[in-house]
Amino acid sequence: MTERTDTPPSWDERTQLTTFLDYARATARAKCEGLSAEDARRSPLPGSPLMTPCGLISHLRWVEHYWLEVVFLGLEEQGPLVHATEDDPDPEMRTAVDVPLPRLLAEYEEQGARFRELVAAHDLDTTAKQPIRDGRHVDLRWILLHLIEETSRHNGHLDVLRELLDGRTGV
Q1: Could you give the CA distance from residue 48 to residue 85 in angstroms, rounded to a whole number?
Q2: 158 to 35, 51, 74, 126, 164: CA distances (angstroms)
Q3: pTM of this prediction?
Q4: Per-residue pLDDT tens for 81-133?
Q5: What is the DSSP letter of 71?
Q6: How many Å apart are CA 157 and CA 53, to the nearest integer?
Q7: 12, exposed or middle or buried, with CB in 10 Å at 0-12, 13-18, 19+?
Q8: Is the dihedral of CA 121, 126, 129, 134 positive or negative?
């Protein structure tokens, strides 16, 4: 069982933000525990065929890559998001059904560890290298808050999927 806590070891702002992001990440992983390989690739929602547990974990991984490496650090975009088009806006979700869930979870965990180091090495007021859609440059604090919101919202999707796929609730 994935261990998780939303109570930070200290009460400074950075620790509170990173603890909540780690908690949301751990919750996403916990919602996938014990899921069969078949169910991890299935979408029980006819109107949302990309909404699979594999797709959501892949999406969370690549969203963090985008915000922390591309927007914040200004690095080149990598992975499936490079291939996003108007006709295929979520290739990270579409292609995830071809990747075993344990591998997706391991990559998500490894990336989270790297990003904890990245966040620890920068002041929360550090401005992102790339602007967001409206042309403004957000700071690291905003990116952390956005990732907490994004991950928590998708945890709700994982809740619904899990209940529809195998009846498991309460994670």
Answers
A1: 18
A2: 11, 9, 30, 32, 10
A3: 0.95
A4: 999 999 999 999 999 999 999 999 999 999 999 999 999 999 999 999 999 99
A5: I
A6: 9
A7: exposed
A8: positive
